[in-house]
Design a protein that fits this description.
Blueprint lengths: L2 H7 L5 E4 L5 E6 L3 E9 L4 E4 L5 E2 L1 H9 L3 H8 L3 H5 L20 H20 L1 H9 L4 H6 L3 E3 L3 E3 L12 E3 L2 E7 L6 E8 L11 E3 L8 E3 L6 E5 L2 H11 L4 E4 L9 H9 L2 E4 L5 H13 L3 E3 L8 H6 L4 H9 L1
Parallel strand pairs: 13-14, 13-15, 15-16
Antiparallel strand pairs: 1-2, 2-3, 3-4, 4-5, 6-9, 7-8, 9-10, 10-11, 12-14
The structure holds zinc ion.
The site of zinc ion has 7 residues, from loops.
C-alpha cells in the first residue's frame, strides 16, 4: 500500500513539494500536528517528522500511528516478519549454548508434592475455583491428570522448610495451582500459581513461579510427536494437550522471554516442525525473532483470537481444528 496512501487515508492531505528522492510530500504529522513538518518520500516509502522525529517505513507507520504491534503491522503491510526481522545474526542451533537446569532439592520436591496434593483436594471441594478451570475449558479428567489445584490462602513460609537457602519468606499466593512434572522421571519440578487476587494495577505478577522451581519449559504430550507447539502459559499448553494432544506436543515457556534449557533444546532440535504461538505483543515479537534465529524450521502461527490459545477457546474457537490447519 505504501506510506503515502496510508497518509492520504488518514486524512493528512500530503502535498508534493519536490522531486527529491523520487517525490517528496509534506503534511501535518499524525502524532504532533503542525502544517508541513511531516515528510514522505514516496519512492522510498519512508516518512519522517521534523518535530517529533518519528520516522520509518510502512510497518513503522502502522506501529507509530495506528497502534499496531510489529507482527500486526507486518501482516497489514503484506510483509513477512522474517524479511524485516532477520538482519542475520551469528545465532544458529549450534551457537546457542543452553543452560543445564538443576533439579530442585529433595526437600523442595517433597514439600511441593504435599502442597500440590493438598491443593488438588481443595479444588475438588471448591465450586468457585473448579468453575474457574471449567470456564477455561478444562475437563475433570485433565484437572486430575495434571494435578491442577487451588490454594485457598496466601502463605509465607520459611525457605528452609522447602530446602532453600535462607532469605525472604517463601511466598505461595492464593490461586490456581499449576504443577509441572518431568516427562521422563515424573518428578514434580516446577510450581506455578495463577493468582486469584491479581488486578490490573497490581505491581506483582499475575503468574508466580514458586522459588526453587526448575527453570525449564513445561512439556505436555509425546515429544516424539512431529508437531511441537510453543505457547507462553502452562494452562494454554495443557488445554492444547487436552484438545489436540494426538496432533501435537505442547510446550509452555512460562514467560515470553524465557529460553529453553539443554533438555528442551534437544527436543526442539529433534522436532520436525515447531509452531510458535505466543501473543503477538512486543515481547512476543522480540521472542519470535530469537526463536526463529535459533530454530529455522519454526513457523509463526499466532493465537486465532485474543492473546493466547486459552483466550481463543473462550472466544469459541475450536482449538483442535486450529491445530489441524497447521498440519494440512
Ligand atoms: Zn511529529
Amino acid at each position: 500500500m505504501g506510506v503515502l496512501v496510508l497518509a492520504r487515508e488518514d486524512g493528512l492531505n500530503p502535498k508534493r513539494v519536490a522531486a527529491t528522492k523520487g517525490g517528496e510530500y509534506h503534511s501535518p504529522c499524525p502524532a504532533c500536528g503542525g502544517k508541513d513538518r511531516f515528510i514522505i518520500w514516496d519512492k522510498l516509502n519512508r516518512y519522517m517528522c521534523r518535530q517529533c522525529k518519528k520516522r520509518g517505513d510502512e510497518v513503522q507507520y502502522r506501529r507509530d500511528f495506528h497502534g499496531l504491534s510489529f507482527l500486526e503491522a507486518c501482516q497489514k503491510s503484506g510483509i513477512a516478519p522474517k524479511d524485516k526481522m532477520l538482519p542475520k545474526r551469528a545465532l544458529s542451533p549450534f551457537s546457542f549454548l543452553p543452560r543445564i537446569a538443576k533439579i530442585p532439592p529433595g526437600a523442595w520436591r517433597k514439600e511441593a508434592e504435599a502442597f500440590t496434593r493438598y491443593c488438588h483436594e481443595q479444588l475438588k471441594k471448591d465450586h468457585f475455583a473448579l468453575d474457574l478451570f471449567h470456564k477455561r475449558g478444562f475437563s475433570n479428567a485433565t484437572i486430575d491428570r495434571f494435578h491442577l489445584g487451588w490454594n485457598p490462602t496466601s502463605l509465607w513460609l520459611e525457605r528452609s522448610q522447602w530446602g532453600l537457602e535462607e532469605g525472604k519468606k517463601l511466598w505461595i499466593p492464593k490461586g490456581l495451582v499449576i504443577p509441572t512434572h518431568d516427562l521422563a522421571t515424573k518428578d514434580l519440578i516446577r510450581l506455578k500459581i495463577r493468582r486469584s487476587d491479581w488486578h490490573e494495577e497490581d505491581t506483582l505478577p499475575k503468574y508466580v513461579e514458586i522459588s526453587g522451581s526448575m527453570p525449564v519449559p513445561s512439556v505436555y504430550g509425546d515429544p516424539k510427536n512431529k508437531l511441537l507447539m510453543i505457547v507462553e502459559a502452562e494452562l494454554d499448553a495443557i488445554l492444547l494437550h487436552q484438545c489436540a494432544g494426538d496432533l501435537c506436543c505442547s510446550m509452555a515457556l512460562g514467560g515470553a522471554s524465557k529460553r529453553p534449557d539443554a533438555e528442551a533444546h534437544k527436543l526442539l532440535l529433534n522436532a520436525s516442525r515447531i509452531i510458535f504461538s505466543l501473543d503477538v505483543d512486543s515481547a512476543g515479537a522480540k521472542a519470535y525473532r530469537w526463536w526463529k534465529d535459533v530454530y529455522p524450521n519454526l513457523k509463526l502461527y499466532p493465537p486465532p483470537a485474543g492473546k493466547s490459545p486459552g483466550d481463543a477457546f473462550i472466544a469459541g474457537i475450536d482449538l483442535r481444528r486450529w491445530v489441524g490447519v497447521v498440519l494440512d
